[in-house]
Amino acid sequence: MAVKFKPAIVSALALTLTLCLGGAARAAPLTENFDAGIPAGWTVNNLSQPPGTIGWFQGNELVFGAQQGAPNSYVAANFASGGDVSTISTWLIMPTSTYSNGDTLSFYTRTVPASEWPDRLEVRFSNVGGTDVGTTATSVGSFSTLLVSINPTLTLGGYPEDWTRYSATLSGLTGPTSGAFAFRYTVSEGGLFGVNSNYIGIDTVRVTAAATAVPEPGAYVMMAFGLGMVGLMRRRQARARAA
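-> structure tokens emitted (243 positions)
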């Protein structure tokens, strides 16, 4: 008598193959051009001491135009994050997502031509996600991984004065990780009367998933088992039709 696989078994085999061939979880691709200012789900937190009147805001085309799109379609931060003389620390935190090794964040940034007040920007990563950046101008909370530091020594002319692309690729994660990226405008002796801090913009932020998701060794075993069972099923179906 011919033996047929039950539909439930066939479905289970298909699920096994899908899981194995799908590989590890990958970051959802993202491109943000800031056509409407700060996107929904992004968090602004100004921890400057003493604080100023604003944090991150829609770009001002009268200062300089966007890297692409409408002239004001970028986000900016400036000396007004702090008071008269401040330690500036104002955060722009992206929504929590799932990331893996090889995922890349890229963006464009610049400052004002011939700026007389140095600026600095950090890009940080939290491997738990969320928005915890601490409560002071020097704290970073769970965003302890520094990926990019632009003009770390606050050198005059050290921040790019034309739109310049930067990128950072994640590594060292133990597997798919719930995490978040953050931009931090951080300037000591900033503010209206400080010797540092002027105006920076960020545009065309992209998150790109790793090029290839490689299955774990155990997944190869399950894949081989699943393919073998599918082959057996096909042979038995052929015999059943011939009977």
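The chain has two domains: 1-23+215-243, 25-211.
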